[in-house]
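Final report, closing paragraph on structural work. Over the funding period we assembled a curated collection of sequence-structure pairs, and we close with a single example.
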Amino acid sequence: MTLISLSPRSVISKIAVGAFVFSLFSPNTAVSQDHNMMDHSGHNMNMMMGDSLVWRMPPMIMSMPMSPGMMDDLPIVKPFLPGFGMDVSMFPEARPSEIVDMANGDTLRMDASLVRRTIQGKEYIMMAYGGMYPGPLIRADRGSKVVVEFTNNIEMPTTVHWHGLRLDNAFDGVPGVTQPPILTGETFTYELKFPDTGMYWYHPHVREDVQQDLGLFGNMLVDPTEKGYYGPVHKEVPLVLDDILIDANGLLPYGESAPTNALMGRFGNVMLVNGITDYNLQVNKGEVVRFYLTNVANTRTFNVVFGGAKIKIVAGDVSKYEREQFVQSVVIAPAERYIVDVYFDEAKDYALTNSIQSVDHYRGVFVPVSHPLGVISASSEAACPNLASAFSELRINEDVVKDIDRFRPYLDKAPNHNLRLTVKVNDLPRWIVMMMEIDTLYVAPMEWNDTMPMMNWLSTGEQVNWILRDEDTGKESMDINWQWKVGDMVKIRIFNYPKSFHPMHHPFHVHGQRFLVTHMDGVANTNMAWKDTAIVPVGSTMDILVDVTNLGTWMAHCHIAEHLHSGMMLSFTVTD
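Its predicted structure, as stored:
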């Protein structure tokens, strides 16, 4: 057994990391996720009043301004920023993520702490696992087991959830369900096991709208033990997609007792890839690169385009697809992962972008928006060996097909449970209610960006209650506790109700198990991969078949951080 301790003196290979931030304004203007957006923080609200932190308004879309009277409203919760009022220079500077190779039986010592981060030339107090952004990439072989001795050195209680792993229930990291919260200065020992090949990630399950947003996230890469599991590539690169909300005065405060931005989630206006804002990858002409994509944003769903390079999707959250296929882009919701092979066949710069169709609710039009994420530069030097022929082949993954075969008799079964996704609100300002009544004349299946930042910001988790409703029993959210047994194949039909106060898509995550998306809006899925998170658009019905293998009490929830902390979660218990 090897003990690995993360410290500045650790000698571990670096991940190639980077990003590019979207900005259409001068350096003195706060950057934004959308065109025609400005920082309005100078309007009657400043970052500090004496030694107190006070609210300031989020950046606004200039084509959709609010009236002056509306601009005087504030969230009903107090503002909060970790490390507020402390000298940023007293914190250690975070360093880029590193790969930690772990063999069966190894132990890793890792903490969560406050660190100093520089974004767009300004320093901020943020959070990090092991002092890194993202946290250390834990790499291990399928079938291995490792130990993580985790210490909480931030000023808030926390836990670590090992997202996607089918591990023992005691180590799932859910406060009040599998363990008590880890208080400041305390240590908790997690035992991890890796039964499935693929890319996974870890993050807090206590106020992740704050902690995850400020940098507490990292990946786990589980390697196959057999040769030829994936097709050949020249290199492998992790891409962790994120955004963060910053104006000219710095980080926008969070809600102290409950999240703000509870309607649509906290969209950022600065795009991050692997935690930084100047991503650039160097490749050779003809190179095939395997990208491991993870979306760690609070709420933003990305549509990733590789500048015209040909993309082949290989795997989802927990397995390869039955068949590889070429795609134009990769739509990835919060908490999802995708593995794609990309072929750069020309010597040129390829723009890595988040290309979406934004909705302007005020004018009733779609607006194409492309957020630059980075640049992949292909040199004129030819890649060796030539993998063009291998890349053009769309492999049938017989191992996945065979694994799914035993579930095919159950794909069309009637649902065991019927869930409705909806929302209730109370005590929101009347003008928000009136605006939402107008807005719901048209409902977009996906909220690609925050087109109503003022209304979203003012809505808190104390006024917005996102609901998972069991339509068979009438129970809602944490009043639900489904009872399953190991070996059950549970069909859940999830309907995203389009006529609620504010319909929104939801990435639905199931802890500790894996599932297949069998149908979407009644249409059978003809190319499946095992998943742990899948997105349900507004008005859509998604059927999933859960492979019940893990004992214990587990959670299922929306993975938009502000929705989770506004009630959108349920539990289920698996017995032997």
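The chain has a mean pLDDT of 90. The radius of gyration is 23 Å. We thank the funder for supporting this effort.
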